[in-house]
TrEMBL record:
Record keyword Hydrolase present: no
GO molecular-function term, one example from the UniProt record: zinc ion binding
Record protein name field: Formylmethanofuran dehydrogenase subunit E domain-containing protein
Formylmethanofuran dehydrogenase subunit E domain boundaries: 16-150
Classification via InterPro entries: FmdE (IPR026328), FmdEsu_dom (IPR003814), tRNA_methyltr_O (IPR053194), Znf_DskA_TraR (IPR000962)
Alphabetized UniProt keyword annotations: Metal-binding, Zinc, Zinc-finger
PANTHER family assigned: DEHYDROGENASE, DEHYDROGENASE-RELATED
Residue ranges annotated for the Zinc finger DksA/TraR C4-type domain, each copy included: 171-198
SUPFAM superfamilies xref list: FwdE-like (SSF143555)
Amino acid sequence: MNPIDTESMLETAIKFHGHQCPGLAMGLRVSQVALRELGKPARDEEMVAIVENSSCGVDAIQVLTGCTFGKGNLIFRDFGKYVYTFMNRENQRALKISIKKEAVLPDKHHLDLFAKVKVGTATPAEAEEFKRLHVEKSNALLVLPEDELLIIEEITPEPLPMAHIHESVCCDKCGEPVMETRIRLLGGAPHCIPCFEELMK
């Protein structure tokens, strides 16, 4: 792993995400493997990422690999797992990358500080200590040997359709345009999901 590349990628990821943290570091390391093994960042939909959590690391994956929600080549599966699958549509290669459990062992002190910071009860000293630990843990993940951090498997790519552009239909209740594939019919009239669920209560 080239330390210069890592430093540059970390700077890019922090600029996009807003801060340095362990989750961002994991996303960076995963992205490095995907790019090394499958090719350069996607300009369009050449590469697809399937992520199984919505944590900080996904921001690193989006900005570093070019797999984004907006382009439709970032697929979110809400399993709450540190598992990431990448597929190169051009050469039909795919990788499944997961974080080893030893790399994400909980640190009670760090978690306790995080809880205080989150609800605004941390003292200035505790908040500063939390920031320091956050960066320290992130830096440790950035230099951890790859075989101690990641499980990398080459897999058979699953068939994934290209992103589609759908027409919009106006909700009969709120009047807001909705992607046609997300419309719910009630009495024959189209409704967005929030309005449909409200009317069905």
